[in-house]
């Protein structure tokens, strides 16, 4: 059983590495020439962009002095580059389509159509819905813990994982917030924030999977398990942000963390007598299938819905079931402890 997991895992890994290497669009010399020209003139064909007005030394031509601060200039240059890339991409895609060629990726992303300035409107909306689902789940967990379940002596809660799930809720909402921002506008800063929050969430939920499934309650044991993982996650985030944004390496790290926690929950669901273990199964199987969408990455339908957007859609019902499992777990563990004490 475990062997089969590892084989699947390595097949998935090699597929992902293959997919990530291919970004044919921005290697195209015609596209490169168009972007290079646009950065100089601020125009693609007839369309010109106000963000692209720089003087030869790189300072802004118009606007008061306080608008010429470096940070503002950086934003402006990002916006200029992003507009140039977007319009060159649309032009190239139109030409390619008229020659009968399908869409290709640019800078690791499919050609999306913008809507009201949003780069990937469907992914933005779905990220926001994920955020809402996590808020709803976390809030109902909060109400259960603080208003419904009984407290023990010296006001201690019977459920030993309460604060760990609170942190999980906060990290989830943070990650989906930055995901929505990143899909609205893909620039260096938003990309780093999105990646860092997603890695933090993924790493933390791996720690949580280990602590809960092995029922680690002793503080010292918890520290021993989580310290090396926390150190690795922190180093990984710092490496991506300050040294090199290595997409291939990051994908491997994320995949290993995701597959190992799915495995941990799957094995636990297989051996435990937890009354809500079927919810675990739904999330593990659903999460595994959803990961396939990231691997069989198809171009956006009508320029809007791609595999990644669908992946964000599948996590919405899974989030609902997941929080419902967490609440069941809190109730079940409390009831079990109370029964033992009687
Ligand atoms: Zn996303």
From TrEMBL:
Keywords: Golgi apparatus, GPI-anchor biosynthesis, Membrane, Signal, Transmembrane, Transmembrane helix. It is a multi-pass membrane protein. Its main location: membrane. One of its GO terms (cellular component) is Golgi membrane. GO terms for biological process: GPI anchor biosynthetic process. The keyword tRNA-binding does not apply. Involved in the lipid remodeling steps of GPI-anchor maturation. This is Post-GPI attachment to proteins factor 3.
């Amino acid at each position: 059983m475990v062997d089969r997991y590892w084989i699947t895992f390595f097949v998935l890994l090699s597929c992902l590495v293959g997919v990530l290497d291919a970004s044919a669009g921005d290697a195209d010399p015609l596209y490169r020439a168009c972007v290079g020209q646009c950065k100089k003139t601020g125009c693609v064909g007839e369309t010109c962009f106000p963000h692209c007005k720089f003087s030869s030394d790189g300072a802004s031509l118009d606007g008061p002095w306080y608008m010429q601060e470096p940070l503002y200039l950086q934003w402006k240059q990002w916006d200029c580059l992003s507009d140039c890339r977007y319009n060159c991409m649309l032009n190239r895609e139109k030409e390619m389509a008229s020659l009968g060629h399908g869409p290709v990726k640019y800078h690791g992303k499919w050609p999306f159509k913008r809507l009201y300035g949003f780069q990937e409107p469907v992914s933005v909306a779905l990220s926001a819905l994920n955020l809402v689902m996590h808020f709803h789940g976390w809030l109902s967990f909060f109400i259960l813990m603080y208003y419904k379940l009984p407290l023990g002596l010296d006001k201690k809660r019977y459920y030993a994982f309460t604060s760990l799930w609170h942190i999980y809720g906060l990290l989830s909402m943070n990650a989906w917030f930055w995901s929505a921002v990143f899909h609205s506008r893909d620039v260096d800063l938003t990309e780093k924030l999105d990646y860092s929050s997603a890695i933090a969430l993924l790493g933390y939920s791996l720690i949580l999977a280990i602590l809960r499934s092995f029922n680690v309650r002793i503080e010292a044991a918890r520290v021993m398990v989580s310290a090396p993982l926390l150190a690795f996650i922190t180093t990984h985030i710092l490496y991506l942000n300050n040294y090199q944004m290595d997409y291939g390496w990051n994908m491997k790290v994320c995949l290993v963390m995701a597959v190992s926690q799915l495995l941990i929950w799957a094995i636990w669901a297989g051996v435990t007598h937890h009354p809500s273990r079927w919810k675990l199964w739904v999330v593990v199987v659903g999460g595994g299938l959803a990961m396939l969408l990231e691997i069989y990455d198809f171009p956006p339908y009508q320029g809007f819905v791609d595999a990644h957007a669908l992946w964000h859609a599948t996590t919405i019902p899974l989030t609902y079931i997941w929080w419902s499992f967490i609440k069941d777990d809190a109730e079940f563990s409390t009831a079990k402890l109370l029964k033992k004490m009687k």
